[in-house]
Amino acid sequence: MRALILAAGKGTRLKPFTTVKPKPAVEVCGIPLILRTFLSLKGLGIEPAVVVGYRAEEIRKILGEGVKLIQNNDIERGNAYSVLCAREEFEREEKFLLLMGDHLYTPEFLSAASRAPPGSAIVCRENDTIAIDEATKVLAENGKVLDIGKGLENWTHIDTGAFICRKDIFDLLDEIFRNKRSFEWSEAVKMANMRIYEVNEPWTDIDTPEDLPKAEKLLLRSLIKPEDGIISRYINRRISLNITRLLGRFDVNPNHISALSFLIAIISSYLLLSGSYILGGILVQVSSIIDGVDGEIARLRFRKSGFGGFFDTLLDRYADAFILSALFLSIPFSIRNFILYLFALTGTFLVGYSASTFKEAYGMRAERLEGKLRFIPAKRDERLFLISIGSIVGYFTEFAIPVLFLLLAAFTNLRVFGRLLMAGGMEKSTS
Amino acid sequence: MRALILAAGKGTRLKPFTTVKPKPAVEVCGIPLILRTFLSLKGLGIEPAVVVGYRAEEIRKILGEGVKLIQNNDIERGNAYSVLCAREEFEREEKFLLLMGDHLYTPEFLSAASRAPPGSAIVCRENDTIAIDEATKVLAENGKVLDIGKGLENWTHIDTGAFICRKDIFDLLDEIFRNKRSFEWSEAVKMANMRIYEVNEPWTDIDTPEDLPKAEKLLLRSLIKPEDGIISRYINRRISLNITRLLGRFDVNPNHISALSFLIAIISSYLLLSGSYILGGILVQVSSIIDGVDGEIARLRFRKSGFGGFFDTLLDRYADAFILSALFLSIPFSIRNFILYLFALTGTFLVGYSASTFKEAYGMRAERLEGKLRFIPAKRDERLFLISIGSIVGYFTEFAIPVLFLLLAAFTNLRVFGRLLMAGGMEKSTS
């Protein structure tokens, strides 16, 4: 599928930002709105073209060479005219995705929106990231758009500025502009008798300068992975997202962040080995938090790569081995301690390993099917948190480290065993 | 695509086997020829139908319920008539795969053959598994079948009994049988002006009782995986394939073989721990050989499953950890020994782990791209062989175990590091 992004308008309300740059060029987390939409679409395999008009050169500069730009030479005729300008380029497409260039869309939103049937206005439910006064509302009846506009008294949904158009929209617009000089797209939506299609993935519109921090927050929150462990979700992400917010403005290489997290893990291993349990334990948790930043920046700045994931996974496993081994060497050697350490280490490796093998065998993430198994703390964020706490307690009592190993061994191997049972169950249900 | 399997003929030459059963019912490695072809096609997503005639009930019994059988009530009219019998069932297919029910085809052969363009006779080059006197030869010119038959003096290829037919073949056969009472398919191939398409994956025809052991060998050799390590290829498979040949006649559960291999690894760990280096070392290698049998039987008897692979991988990792840890505990504790052990264990885990993560990231097996990296002995068969040798040497000199750890640590971590460099290189070549 192809997408048409409207970026010809003036967007005067976002002053003072827009005295400096047109609204689609406004940056959130270091990347202009329109570039984010553009790169997200590319990542989804959707080929975008952009209608430009007002300060077209600046938009062109942001998007770079090799982008299909469509010129609207008369932006006073309303944004419906921008759509009509794309007739020649899009009239052979059975359907296409229409988007507003000055909205903030996440890849999750665009992916869901692209699955709507032809002739759909993508809408969402009211939510706290949308300034309701400024929002374009939709009144739907029997699944159809009955009315649309900012000033509606009665309304059922919020317009997201995304539509899946059929090619016959161009005939309608031709007809309209035969009689009118200027026309708004929202009026055309009403006339086209579009169906509504609800998508509640994150997106937002930026109308006033006050909306910018809210948009940033929305974008950062969308970086949290659904398969995150409990510690990551409730502790680590609160800090790592703030680091990402600061670093995200610069062109940081996510692999350097992975390396930094690894380096901190090495230092903490050295500290634990030499008996500095409190500082070592704290640094373990710091390393764990930094370990979230690489992925966040990669997704935020479209720097996700196969190599990055591979590199991060390998470094994490070495770090895990070093931290556990440092703790093991810091306590007196005994067969009991060694066995606890061995099972903790093996289980640690197998949690990630089994996730990877599970995905290979069944084509989906084990985490999605784990149900109550998810509450066994065995993922990396949870393990490192346990190690951090265990090490700090270890400063006060020598039993803490063997107990820590015992807990890690039990949790990790139980979770792996649970996945094995799960795999056995899947086999039965399909055969 | 659909496939049509011809199994209506008498196949008298394979006596004494065929006095007992029709030729497609002859078993190789415990599975009748036609059932193997049938299950292989199913595994490739190709839906087979079977033309039956001579002793149709026996074929029906082998294939079970739910199979589309087409009756040929006059098998004296030649096998071209069997194809015509399928007209009603197949004339709406643009193309279909035609196969001889009494040949032995491997899934690799069928997969390659199914990719031939419509109107192709699948041929192969002369090779040592085909009895050239009995084979149907093909004389090709400019990529077309000029002549085909057993008695050809001049020929260029061997007929495999596999064809990709266009639906217009039925019109030709209708035309032929308007004038003839009996007609052979090979004559029809000539008249249809088919192109040749070369496939050299393993298949064979069984003409005489002497061909049976050869067919069995061909089938067993086809179970060797292309990504096998050196030890597996040159030592383990020679033994494991013989075990599979014996066990393959029974309906053995491959997961039980995985469990047996694990059990032997546990026993060998116990022996190594208690200083029985020679017996322990031998059992490590025995466990490694048995570890090949589960996969062979799974592929041979169509019992491959996601669970089986997952179960085997997990057991292998625990076994690896136990064997290395037993060796570590069998020597005096020192920091040097511990560090060598730690890197050997971590590297051991990461060889398989990185293969799995690599496949997740790049959608292909790391082994396929490894080039010279493949010569670093780090895969499981190679590691266990090193451990086996190292343990036996360890009976004579106490330095053997630390040296073994050093070698394992170096080889495994080097191979993982090589994969990381490879991933970095791929990133550059695609960006």
UniProtKB/TrEMBL annotation, chains A, B:
Give TM segment ranges: 260-293, 339-358, 384-411
**Enzyme Commission (EC) number:** 2.7.7.74, 2.7.8.34
- A GO biological-process term: phospholipid biosynthetic process
Q: Which PROSITE patterns match?
A: CDP_ALCOHOL_P_TRANSF (PS00379)
Which InterPro entries does the UniProt entry name for this protein?
A: CDP-OH_P_trans, CDP-OH_PTrfase_TM_dom, CDP_ALCOHOL_P_TRANSF_CS, GlmU-like, MobA-like_NTP_Trfase, Nucleotide-diphossugar_trans
Gene3D superfamilies of this UniProt entry?
1.20.120.1760, Spore Coat Polysaccharide Biosynthesis Protein SpsA, Chain A (3.90.550.10)
- Record's superkingdom? Archaea
Molecular functions (GO terms): nucleotidyltransferase activity; phosphotransferase activity, for other substituted phosphate groups
Write out the entry's keywords from A to Z.
Answer: Membrane, Nucleotidyltransferase, Transferase, Transmembrane, Transmembrane helix
Catalyzed chemical reaction(s): 1D-myo-inositol 3-phosphate + CTP + H(+) = CDP-1L-myo-inositol + diphosphate; CDP-1L-myo-inositol + 1D-myo-inositol 3-phosphate = bis(1L-myo-inositol) 3,1'-phosphate 1-phosphate + CMP + H(+)
All copies of the MobA-like NTP transferase domain together span 3-125
Q: Which GO terms describe its cellular component?
A: membrane
PANTHER family referenced in this protein's UniProt entry, alphabetically = N-ACETYLMURAMATE ALPHA-1-PHOSPHATE URIDYLYLTRANSFERASE (PTHR43584:SF8), NUCLEOTIDYL TRANSFERASE (PTHR43584)
The UniProt entry's sequence similarity note says: In the C-terminal section; belongs to the CDP-alcohol phosphatidyltransferase class-I family. Belongs to the CDP-alcohol phosphatidyltransferase class-I family.
What protein does this entry describe? Bifunctional IPC transferase and DIPP synthase
